[in-house]
Write a structure and sequence with these properties.
alpha/beta; two-stranded antiparallel sheet; 4-stranded parallel β-sheet; 8 helices
Length: about 220
């Protein structure tokens, strides 16, 4: 039902056999028939499908997919080409430009980051049209916790960007070889409380370089 690469399927195969995940599948089969659900079924695991487990350099943890038409396509904070930038992404671009002295692309499609090793993972992977957090309690958080645990056990270092209290609740699972960067969420409601000026993008690249890993082009 849900497309996932062999790379991640092998890592998460035990999860797919557990009762909670089978319940997610059954629930989604009904939801996609009855409602407009985002992202499309083909894109539920887009974040995983674009970055192999061993190639993940940075994890940017989001919460819930965008719930308006034409926005969500399976990557946290990202929207498809031609779609107006959501306020949080506008603020992310502002911080990148201030931090790194570069100009970001006008498109909000962050596939260009994913292809460099940025895992743009939402903790809940689906949502009903117009109903924020409508799928937040169907079991996705159990699944995404397992993804973070698997990545945390990896020896090769990763940068985890945790913005806001929800993302930061995953911090205790992350082992010491990785860099954990915490800041308020980039939404207009909280960005001025410390997201602006956090310099996470330069800190991430400096950490990658120190560990002999190619840095990310954040344009």
């Amino acid at each position: 039902m849900i497309k996932i690469t062999k790379n991640w399927a092998n890592i998460l195969k035990n999860e797919f056999e557990k009762p909670y995940f089978k319940k997610i599948q059954e629930y989604l089969e009904s939801e996609y028939q009855k409602y407009d659900i985002y992202p499309s079924m083909d894109n539920i695991f887009a974040a995983l499908n674009l970055v192999k487990f061993e190639d993940v350099k940075v994890v940017i943890l989001g919460q819930d997919p965008y719930h308006e038409p034409g926005q969500a396509h399976g990557l946290s904070f990202s929207v498809l080409d031609g779609v107006a930038l959501p306020p949080s992404l506008v603020n992310i671009y502002k911080e990148i430009e201030s931090d790194l002295g570069i100009k970001c692309e006008k498109s909000g499609n962050l596939t260009r980051w994913a292809k460099q090793g940025v895992l743009l993972l939402n903790t809940t992977l689906t949502v009903r049209k117009g109903q924020a957090n409508s799928h937040s309690e169907i079991g996705w958080k159990i699944f995404t916790h397992e993804i973070i645990k698997a990545l945390s056990k990896r020896e090769k270092p990763i940068v985890f960007m945790l913005w806001g209290s929800h993302a930061q609740s995953y911090a205790p699972e992350i082992e010491k070889q990785h860099l954990v960067l915490k800041a308020p969420h980039p939404s207009p409601l909280s960005s001025y409380r410390g997201f602006f000026g956090c310099k996470h993008f330069s800190k991430a690249n400096n950490f990658l370089i120190e560990n002999h890993i190619t840095p990310i082009d954040w344009h």
